[in-house]
Amino acid sequence: MEFDLHTLIRFFPVLLEGLWMTVIISTVSLGFGVIIGLIACLGKLMERGIEYRLATNFIDFFRTIPEMVLIFWVYSCLPLLFDLRLSAETCGILALSLYSGAFLAEIFRAGILAVPREQIEGALALGLPKIPVWRFVILPQAIRRMMPAFVNFLTELIKASSLLSAIGITELVYQASTLGAQTFRYVEFLSAIALLYFLIILPFSLYSRRSEIALVRRTGQ
Amino acid sequence: MKMKAKLVFWIGLAVLAAIVIYHLNWDLVRALEFSTVWEYREVMVWALGMSLMIAFIATAIGLVVGTLLAIVSQSSLPILRWIVVIYVEIFRNTPILVMLIWVHFALPILTGFTTTAFQSGLIAMGLQSSAYFSEIVRAGIGAVPRGQWEAALALGLPLRPRWTEIVLPQALRIIIPPLANLAISLFKATSILSILSISELMTVSTRISNFTFKPIEVLTVAACMYCIVGYLMSRGTLRLERHLREGER
Questions:
Q1: Residues B162, B152: contact at Cβ < 8 Å?
Q2: pLDDT tens digit string along B211-228?
Q3: CATH of domain B40-248
Protein backbone atom coordinates (compact mmCIF):
# COMPACT_ATOMS: atom_id res chain seq x y z
CA MET A 1 0.00 0.00 0.00
CA GLU A 2 1.04 3.58 -0.41
CA PHE A 3 1.13 6.21 2.26
CA ASP A 4 -1.69 8.62 1.45
CA LEU A 5 -0.23 11.92 2.54
CA HIS A 6 -2.96 13.85 0.77
CA THR A 7 -5.81 12.59 2.98
CA LEU A 8 -3.67 13.11 6.04
CA ILE A 9 -3.00 16.74 5.15
CA ARG A 10 -6.64 17.34 4.28
CA PHE A 11 -7.83 16.16 7.69
CA PHE A 12 -4.87 17.44 9.66
CA PRO A 13 -6.82 20.40 11.14
CA VAL A 14 -9.20 17.88 12.74
CA LEU A 15 -6.25 16.12 14.32
CA LEU A 16 -4.98 19.45 15.58
CA GLU A 17 -8.35 20.08 17.23
CA GLY A 18 -7.92 16.76 18.97
CA LEU A 19 -4.43 17.73 20.01
CA TRP A 20 -5.77 20.99 21.46
CA MET A 21 -8.35 19.00 23.45
CA THR A 22 -5.62 16.70 24.76
CA VAL A 23 -3.52 19.68 25.83
CA ILE A 24 -6.44 21.46 27.52
CA ILE A 25 -7.65 18.39 29.39
CA SER A 26 -4.15 17.49 30.56
CA THR A 27 -3.48 21.05 31.74
CA VAL A 28 -6.77 21.44 33.60
CA SER A 29 -6.41 18.01 35.23
CA LEU A 30 -2.86 18.86 36.22
CA GLY A 31 -4.11 22.09 37.83
CA PHE A 32 -6.77 20.34 39.88
CA GLY A 33 -4.36 17.49 40.54
CA VAL A 34 -1.86 19.91 42.08
CA ILE A 35 -4.55 21.22 44.46
CA ILE A 36 -5.69 17.72 45.44
CA GLY A 37 -2.07 16.62 45.69
CA LEU A 38 -1.17 19.49 48.01
CA ILE A 39 -4.06 18.69 50.36
CA ALA A 40 -3.25 14.97 50.39
CA CYS A 41 0.45 15.76 50.84
CA LEU A 42 -0.35 17.98 53.83
CA GLY A 43 -2.33 15.14 55.37
CA LYS A 44 0.45 12.68 54.77
CA LEU A 45 3.10 14.99 56.24
CA MET A 46 1.26 14.82 59.58
CA GLU A 47 2.79 11.34 59.99
CA ARG A 48 0.10 10.18 62.37
CA GLY A 49 -3.50 10.80 63.27
CA ILE A 50 -6.69 10.61 61.31
CA GLU A 51 -5.52 13.09 58.62
CA TYR A 52 -2.54 10.89 57.84
CA ARG A 53 -4.73 7.79 57.68
CA LEU A 54 -7.22 9.47 55.32
CA ALA A 55 -4.55 10.90 53.05
CA THR A 56 -2.68 7.59 52.88
CA ASN A 57 -5.80 5.65 52.00
CA PHE A 58 -6.76 8.19 49.36
CA ILE A 59 -3.29 8.11 47.80
CA ASP A 60 -3.00 4.32 47.89
CA PHE A 61 -6.45 3.84 46.42
CA PHE A 62 -6.03 6.17 43.47
CA ARG A 63 -2.49 4.99 42.82
CA THR A 64 -3.52 1.34 42.60
CA ILE A 65 -6.78 1.64 40.67
CA PRO A 66 -6.18 1.40 36.89
CA GLU A 67 -6.79 4.71 35.11
CA MET A 68 -9.18 3.07 32.65
CA VAL A 69 -11.35 1.68 35.46
CA LEU A 70 -11.35 5.02 37.24
CA ILE A 71 -12.40 6.87 34.09
CA PHE A 72 -15.20 4.41 33.39
CA TRP A 73 -16.36 4.47 36.99
CA VAL A 74 -16.52 8.26 37.09
CA TYR A 75 -18.21 8.36 33.71
CA SER A 76 -20.90 5.75 34.25
CA CYS A 77 -21.46 5.69 38.02
CA LEU A 78 -20.89 9.19 39.33
CA PRO A 79 -23.67 10.94 37.34
CA LEU A 80 -26.11 8.23 38.47
CA LEU A 81 -25.04 8.39 42.10
CA PHE A 82 -25.29 12.16 42.27
CA ASP A 83 -28.21 12.52 39.90
CA LEU A 84 -26.21 14.98 37.84
CA ARG A 85 -25.73 15.57 34.17
CA LEU A 86 -22.01 15.65 33.67
CA SER A 87 -20.42 16.04 30.28
CA ALA A 88 -17.85 13.47 29.25
CA GLU A 89 -15.20 16.18 29.49
CA THR A 90 -16.07 16.95 33.12
CA CYS A 91 -15.97 13.26 34.00
CA GLY A 92 -12.64 12.82 32.26
CA ILE A 93 -11.12 15.83 33.98
CA LEU A 94 -12.44 14.66 37.34
CA ALA A 95 -10.98 11.17 36.90
CA LEU A 96 -7.62 12.45 35.73
CA SER A 97 -7.51 15.02 38.55
CA LEU A 98 -8.02 12.34 41.17
CA TYR A 99 -5.41 10.17 39.48
CA SER A 100 -2.87 12.97 39.29
CA GLY A 101 -3.70 14.19 42.80
CA ALA A 102 -2.70 10.85 44.27
CA PHE A 103 0.55 10.62 42.31
CA LEU A 104 1.48 14.27 42.82
CA ALA A 105 0.92 14.01 46.58
CA GLU A 106 3.64 11.38 46.76
CA ILE A 107 5.94 13.43 44.51
CA PHE A 108 5.46 16.56 46.65
CA ARG A 109 6.03 14.61 49.83
CA ALA A 110 9.19 13.00 48.53
CA GLY A 111 10.50 16.43 47.49
CA ILE A 112 9.79 17.98 50.89
CA LEU A 113 11.25 15.05 52.81
CA ALA A 114 14.40 15.16 50.65
CA VAL A 115 15.34 18.57 52.02
CA PRO A 116 18.09 17.87 54.57
CA ARG A 117 16.92 18.22 58.16
CA GLU A 118 19.92 20.41 59.03
CA GLN A 119 18.62 23.08 56.66
CA ILE A 120 15.34 23.32 58.56
CA GLU A 121 16.99 23.08 61.95
CA GLY A 122 19.51 25.74 60.95
CA ALA A 123 16.81 28.12 59.77
CA LEU A 124 14.81 27.56 62.95
CA ALA A 125 17.91 28.03 65.09
CA LEU A 126 18.50 31.39 63.38
CA GLY A 127 15.10 32.40 64.68
CA LEU A 128 13.31 32.49 61.33
CA PRO A 129 9.55 32.22 61.76
CA LYS A 130 7.77 29.15 60.38
CA ILE A 131 6.38 30.74 57.23
CA PRO A 132 9.70 32.18 55.94
CA VAL A 133 11.27 28.82 56.72
CA TRP A 134 8.80 27.22 54.33
CA ARG A 135 8.92 30.06 51.84
CA PHE A 136 12.70 30.55 51.62
CA VAL A 137 14.27 27.34 52.93
CA ILE A 138 12.09 24.28 52.42
CA LEU A 139 10.04 25.02 49.31
CA PRO A 140 12.80 26.27 46.95
CA GLN A 141 14.90 23.20 47.66
CA ALA A 142 11.92 20.86 47.64
CA ILE A 143 10.68 22.18 44.29
CA ARG A 144 14.10 21.72 42.74
CA ARG A 145 14.22 18.16 43.99
CA MET A 146 10.70 17.24 42.89
CA MET A 147 11.02 18.74 39.40
CA PRO A 148 12.27 15.61 37.57
CA ALA A 149 9.54 13.43 39.06
CA PHE A 150 6.93 16.11 38.42
CA VAL A 151 7.81 16.44 34.75
CA ASN A 152 7.95 12.67 34.44
CA PHE A 153 4.45 12.49 35.87
CA LEU A 154 3.35 15.06 33.31
CA THR A 155 4.34 12.62 30.56
CA GLU A 156 2.31 9.90 32.31
CA LEU A 157 -0.66 12.25 32.49
CA ILE A 158 -0.52 13.06 28.77
CA LYS A 159 -0.38 9.34 28.05
CA ALA A 160 -3.31 8.67 30.38
CA SER A 161 -5.37 11.39 28.68
CA SER A 162 -5.42 9.19 25.57
CA LEU A 163 -7.70 6.81 27.50
CA LEU A 164 -10.39 9.47 27.53
CA SER A 165 -11.17 8.57 23.93
CA ALA A 166 -12.97 5.53 25.40
CA ILE A 167 -15.67 7.76 26.89
CA GLY A 168 -16.03 9.77 23.70
CA ILE A 169 -13.99 12.85 24.44
CA THR A 170 -12.83 14.24 21.13
CA GLU A 171 -9.13 14.19 21.86
CA LEU A 172 -6.30 13.01 19.66
CA VAL A 173 -6.91 9.26 19.69
CA TYR A 174 -10.66 9.66 19.26
CA GLN A 175 -10.24 11.95 16.23
CA ALA A 176 -7.68 9.67 14.65
CA SER A 177 -9.78 6.52 15.06
CA THR A 178 -12.92 8.24 13.74
CA LEU A 179 -11.02 9.64 10.76
CA GLY A 180 -9.43 6.24 10.22
CA ALA A 181 -12.83 4.57 10.21
CA GLN A 182 -14.27 7.16 7.82
CA THR A 183 -11.46 7.17 5.29
CA PHE A 184 -10.05 3.65 5.84
CA ARG A 185 -6.66 5.30 6.19
CA TYR A 186 -5.78 3.81 9.57
CA VAL A 187 -2.07 3.62 8.92
CA GLU A 188 -1.72 7.30 8.12
CA PHE A 189 -3.82 8.68 10.95
CA LEU A 190 -2.66 6.30 13.66
CA SER A 191 0.99 6.77 12.71
CA ALA A 192 0.45 10.52 12.67
CA ILE A 193 -0.93 10.59 16.20
CA ALA A 194 1.73 8.21 17.45
CA LEU A 195 4.29 10.66 16.09
CA LEU A 196 2.43 13.64 17.58
CA TYR A 197 2.33 12.05 21.02
CA PHE A 198 5.97 11.13 20.70
CA LEU A 199 6.92 14.69 19.77
CA ILE A 200 4.95 16.18 22.66
CA ILE A 201 6.14 13.75 25.30
CA LEU A 202 9.80 13.36 24.27
CA PRO A 203 10.98 16.86 25.38
CA PHE A 204 9.43 16.40 28.83
CA SER A 205 10.81 12.94 29.18
CA LEU A 206 14.30 14.02 28.11
CA TYR A 207 14.18 17.02 30.44
CA SER A 208 13.06 14.82 33.31
CA ARG A 209 15.94 12.37 32.84
CA ARG A 210 18.58 15.06 32.26
CA SER A 211 17.56 17.06 35.31
CA GLU A 212 17.44 13.89 37.39
CA ILE A 213 21.06 13.15 36.50
CA ALA A 214 22.04 16.78 37.14
CA LEU A 215 20.29 16.70 40.49
CA VAL A 216 22.02 13.52 41.58
CA ARG A 217 25.36 14.99 40.58
CA ARG A 218 24.72 18.25 42.43
CA THR A 219 23.27 16.90 45.65
CA GLY A 220 25.40 13.79 45.65
CA GLN A 221 22.51 11.53 46.61
CA MET B 1 2.00 25.80 61.64
CA LYS B 2 0.82 22.29 62.31
CA MET B 3 -2.50 23.59 63.57
CA LYS B 4 -2.92 25.75 60.46
CA ALA B 5 -2.08 22.88 58.14
CA LYS B 6 -4.58 20.70 59.98
CA LEU B 7 -7.18 23.41 59.65
CA VAL B 8 -6.62 23.73 55.88
CA PHE B 9 -6.87 19.97 55.52
CA TRP B 10 -10.10 19.69 57.49
CA ILE B 11 -11.75 22.66 55.78
CA GLY B 12 -11.01 21.12 52.38
CA LEU B 13 -12.36 17.80 53.51
CA ALA B 14 -15.47 19.31 55.10
CA VAL B 15 -16.36 21.24 51.94
CA LEU B 16 -15.98 18.07 49.91
CA ALA B 17 -18.04 16.00 52.34
CA ALA B 18 -20.79 18.63 52.39
CA ILE B 19 -21.01 18.60 48.59
CA VAL B 20 -21.09 14.81 48.50
CA ILE B 21 -23.75 14.44 51.17
CA TYR B 22 -25.91 17.18 49.73
CA HIS B 23 -25.87 15.89 46.17
CA LEU B 24 -25.83 12.13 46.72
CA ASN B 25 -28.90 10.42 45.30
CA TRP B 26 -29.84 8.55 48.48
CA ASP B 27 -32.78 6.68 46.96
CA LEU B 28 -30.44 5.14 44.44
CA VAL B 29 -27.86 4.32 47.09
CA ARG B 30 -30.50 2.52 49.14
CA ALA B 31 -31.60 0.56 46.09
CA LEU B 32 -28.13 -0.78 45.32
CA GLU B 33 -28.08 -4.56 45.04
CA PHE B 34 -24.75 -6.26 45.27
CA SER B 35 -26.35 -9.71 45.12
CA THR B 36 -26.49 -9.41 41.32
CA VAL B 37 -22.73 -9.17 41.25
CA TRP B 38 -22.49 -12.21 43.48
CA GLU B 39 -24.31 -14.24 40.82
CA TYR B 40 -21.56 -13.40 38.37
CA ARG B 41 -18.73 -14.04 40.83
CA GLU B 42 -17.23 -16.95 38.89
CA VAL B 43 -17.11 -15.06 35.61
CA MET B 44 -15.52 -12.07 37.27
CA VAL B 45 -12.89 -14.10 39.08
CA TRP B 46 -12.06 -15.85 35.79
CA ALA B 47 -11.77 -12.47 34.11
CA LEU B 48 -9.45 -11.31 36.87
CA GLY B 49 -7.38 -14.41 36.24
CA MET B 50 -7.27 -13.49 32.57
CA SER B 51 -6.02 -9.99 33.44
CA LEU B 52 -3.34 -11.46 35.66
CA MET B 53 -2.32 -13.90 32.95
CA ILE B 54 -2.02 -11.14 30.34
CA ALA B 55 0.05 -9.08 32.76
CA PHE B 56 2.23 -12.11 33.45
CA ILE B 57 2.83 -12.85 29.76
CA ALA B 58 3.56 -9.19 29.05
CA THR B 59 6.07 -9.16 31.91
CA ALA B 60 7.69 -12.31 30.57
CA ILE B 61 7.97 -10.84 27.06
CA GLY B 62 9.39 -7.65 28.54
CA LEU B 63 11.86 -9.67 30.58
CA VAL B 64 13.24 -11.59 27.62
CA VAL B 65 13.19 -8.87 24.94
CA GLY B 66 14.18 -6.16 27.40
CA THR B 67 17.23 -8.10 28.61
CA LEU B 68 18.30 -8.75 25.01
CA LEU B 69 17.91 -5.06 24.19
CA ALA B 70 19.91 -4.08 27.25
CA ILE B 71 22.73 -6.45 26.29
CA VAL B 72 22.69 -5.11 22.72
CA SER B 73 22.81 -1.55 24.09
CA GLN B 74 26.19 -2.41 25.66
CA SER B 75 27.54 -3.35 22.24
CA SER B 76 30.52 -1.54 20.76
CA LEU B 77 28.76 -0.94 17.43
CA PRO B 78 27.17 2.53 17.50
CA ILE B 79 24.45 1.55 15.03
CA LEU B 80 23.16 -1.23 17.30
CA ARG B 81 23.18 1.11 20.27
CA TRP B 82 21.22 3.69 18.30
CA ILE B 83 18.60 1.17 17.22
CA VAL B 84 18.01 0.25 20.86
CA VAL B 85 17.82 3.91 21.90
CA ILE B 86 15.24 4.66 19.20
CA TYR B 87 13.17 1.59 20.06
CA VAL B 88 13.16 2.45 23.75
CA GLU B 89 12.35 6.12 23.22
CA ILE B 90 9.49 5.37 20.83
CA PHE B 91 7.72 2.97 23.15
CA ARG B 92 8.41 4.88 26.34
CA ASN B 93 7.05 8.11 24.95
CA THR B 94 3.83 7.00 23.28
CA PRO B 95 0.65 6.00 25.10
CA ILE B 96 0.00 2.27 25.22
CA LEU B 97 -3.50 2.85 23.85
CA VAL B 98 -2.08 4.40 20.68
CA MET B 99 0.30 1.47 20.27
CA LEU B 100 -2.56 -0.93 20.85
CA ILE B 101 -4.81 0.47 18.15
CA TRP B 102 -1.84 0.96 15.87
CA VAL B 103 -0.90 -2.71 16.21
CA HIS B 104 -4.48 -3.83 15.80
CA PHE B 105 -5.64 -1.60 12.94
CA ALA B 106 -2.58 -0.29 11.12
CA LEU B 107 -0.11 -3.17 11.35
CA PRO B 108 -2.32 -5.70 9.49
CA ILE B 109 -2.61 -3.24 6.58
CA LEU B 110 1.15 -2.80 6.49
CA THR B 111 2.18 -6.43 6.89
CA GLY B 112 -0.83 -8.34 5.61
CA PHE B 113 -1.01 -10.46 8.76
CA THR B 114 -4.21 -10.06 10.74
CA THR B 115 -3.84 -10.48 14.46
CA THR B 116 -6.60 -11.34 16.89
CA ALA B 117 -7.43 -8.77 19.54
CA PHE B 118 -5.65 -10.91 22.12
CA GLN B 119 -2.47 -11.11 20.04
CA SER B 120 -2.53 -7.36 19.35
CA GLY B 121 -2.90 -6.70 23.03
CA LEU B 122 0.05 -8.90 23.89
CA ILE B 123 2.20 -7.38 21.13
CA ALA B 124 1.45 -3.82 22.24
CA MET B 125 2.05 -4.58 25.90
CA GLY B 126 5.17 -6.57 25.07
CA LEU B 127 6.62 -3.68 23.05
CA GLN B 128 5.97 -1.25 25.87
CA SER B 129 7.17 -3.50 28.67
CA SER B 130 10.35 -4.49 26.82
CA ALA B 131 11.21 -0.82 26.29
CA TYR B 132 10.73 -0.04 29.98
CA PHE B 133 12.46 -3.20 31.09
CA SER B 134 15.53 -2.67 28.94
CA GLU B 135 16.03 0.64 30.74
CA ILE B 136 15.71 -1.11 34.09
CA VAL B 137 18.22 -3.78 33.10
CA ARG B 138 20.59 -1.16 31.73
CA ALA B 139 20.50 0.69 35.02
CA GLY B 140 21.07 -2.60 36.82
CA ILE B 141 24.03 -3.48 34.62
CA GLY B 142 25.38 0.05 35.03
CA ALA B 143 25.27 -0.38 38.79
CA VAL B 144 27.57 -3.42 38.72
CA PRO B 145 30.99 -2.05 39.72
CA ARG B 146 33.53 -1.66 36.91
CA GLY B 147 36.02 -3.73 38.87
CA GLN B 148 33.82 -6.79 38.41
CA TRP B 149 33.91 -6.37 34.63
CA GLU B 150 37.61 -5.84 34.60
CA ALA B 151 38.24 -8.82 36.86
CA ALA B 152 36.11 -11.04 34.60
CA LEU B 153 38.02 -9.80 31.56
CA ALA B 154 41.36 -10.19 33.30
CA LEU B 155 40.50 -13.80 34.17
CA GLY B 156 39.92 -14.35 30.46
CA LEU B 157 36.26 -15.34 30.86
CA PRO B 158 34.52 -15.62 27.49
CA LEU B 159 31.53 -13.44 26.65
CA ARG B 160 28.76 -15.76 27.82
CA PRO B 161 29.97 -16.65 31.32
CA ARG B 162 31.00 -13.04 31.76
CA TRP B 163 27.33 -12.14 31.46
CA THR B 164 25.63 -15.16 33.02
CA GLU B 165 28.08 -15.76 35.89
CA ILE B 166 29.31 -12.29 36.82
CA VAL B 167 27.19 -9.40 35.62
CA LEU B 168 23.57 -10.59 35.49
CA PRO B 169 23.43 -12.19 38.98
CA GLN B 170 24.68 -8.98 40.55
CA ALA B 171 22.44 -6.81 38.41
CA LEU B 172 19.43 -8.99 39.27
CA ARG B 173 19.33 -7.78 42.86
CA ILE B 174 19.00 -4.19 41.66
CA ILE B 175 16.56 -5.14 38.90
CA ILE B 176 13.95 -7.10 40.84
CA PRO B 177 12.15 -4.27 42.72
CA PRO B 178 11.58 -2.08 39.63
CA LEU B 179 10.59 -5.21 37.69
CA ALA B 180 7.90 -5.91 40.27
CA ASN B 181 6.67 -2.33 39.94
CA LEU B 182 6.59 -2.73 36.17
CA ALA B 183 4.50 -5.88 36.59
CA ILE B 184 2.03 -3.91 38.70
CA SER B 185 1.69 -1.17 36.10
CA LEU B 186 1.26 -3.82 33.41
CA PHE B 187 -1.53 -5.33 35.47
CA LYS B 188 -3.15 -1.91 35.60
CA ALA B 189 -2.61 -1.50 31.86
CA THR B 190 -4.49 -4.73 31.07
CA SER B 191 -7.68 -2.75 31.68
CA ILE B 192 -6.81 -0.69 28.59
CA LEU B 193 -7.13 -3.83 26.47
CA SER B 194 -10.88 -3.56 27.06
CA ILE B 195 -10.83 -1.18 24.08
CA LEU B 196 -10.39 -4.28 21.89
CA SER B 197 -12.88 -6.33 23.97
CA ILE B 198 -10.37 -8.89 25.13
CA SER B 199 -12.25 -10.77 27.83
CA GLU B 200 -10.31 -9.47 30.81
CA LEU B 201 -11.87 -8.02 33.96
CA MET B 202 -12.74 -4.60 32.57
CA THR B 203 -14.43 -5.90 29.41
CA VAL B 204 -16.29 -8.59 31.30
CA SER B 205 -17.57 -6.18 33.92
CA THR B 206 -18.72 -3.67 31.32
CA ARG B 207 -20.53 -6.49 29.59
CA ILE B 208 -22.17 -7.65 32.82
CA SER B 209 -23.17 -4.11 33.69
CA ASN B 210 -24.74 -3.60 30.27
CA PHE B 211 -26.58 -6.87 30.61
CA THR B 212 -27.91 -6.39 34.14
CA PHE B 213 -28.32 -2.58 34.01
CA LYS B 214 -26.41 -2.32 37.25
CA PRO B 215 -23.30 -0.33 36.34
CA ILE B 216 -22.69 1.04 39.82
CA GLU B 217 -22.56 -2.30 41.57
CA VAL B 218 -20.59 -4.16 38.92
CA LEU B 219 -18.06 -1.45 38.20
CA THR B 220 -17.51 -0.70 41.88
CA VAL B 221 -16.84 -4.35 42.60
CA ALA B 222 -14.49 -4.56 39.60
CA ALA B 223 -12.65 -1.44 40.76
CA CYS B 224 -12.28 -2.96 44.22
CA MET B 225 -10.96 -6.21 42.74
CA TYR B 226 -8.33 -4.32 40.75
CA CYS B 227 -7.47 -2.32 43.81
CA ILE B 228 -7.11 -5.29 46.15
CA VAL B 229 -4.94 -7.25 43.73
CA GLY B 230 -2.82 -4.17 42.94
CA TYR B 231 -2.47 -3.44 46.66
CA LEU B 232 -1.40 -7.00 47.44
CA MET B 233 1.13 -6.86 44.62
CA SER B 234 2.63 -3.61 45.85
CA ARG B 235 2.79 -4.92 49.43
CA GLY B 236 4.58 -7.98 48.09
CA THR B 237 7.02 -5.74 46.23
CA LEU B 238 7.80 -3.77 49.37
CA ARG B 239 8.44 -6.96 51.30
CA LEU B 240 10.64 -8.31 48.52
CA GLU B 241 12.60 -5.07 48.47
CA ARG B 242 13.19 -5.24 52.20
CA HIS B 243 14.21 -8.87 51.92
CA LEU B 244 16.72 -8.10 49.16
CA ARG B 245 18.18 -5.20 51.10
CA GLU B 246 18.67 -7.41 54.12
CA GLY B 247 20.30 -10.08 51.97
CA GLU B 248 22.87 -7.54 50.87
CA ARG B 249 24.26 -6.93 54.34
A1: yes
A2: 888 888 889 999 999 999
A3: 1.10.3720.10
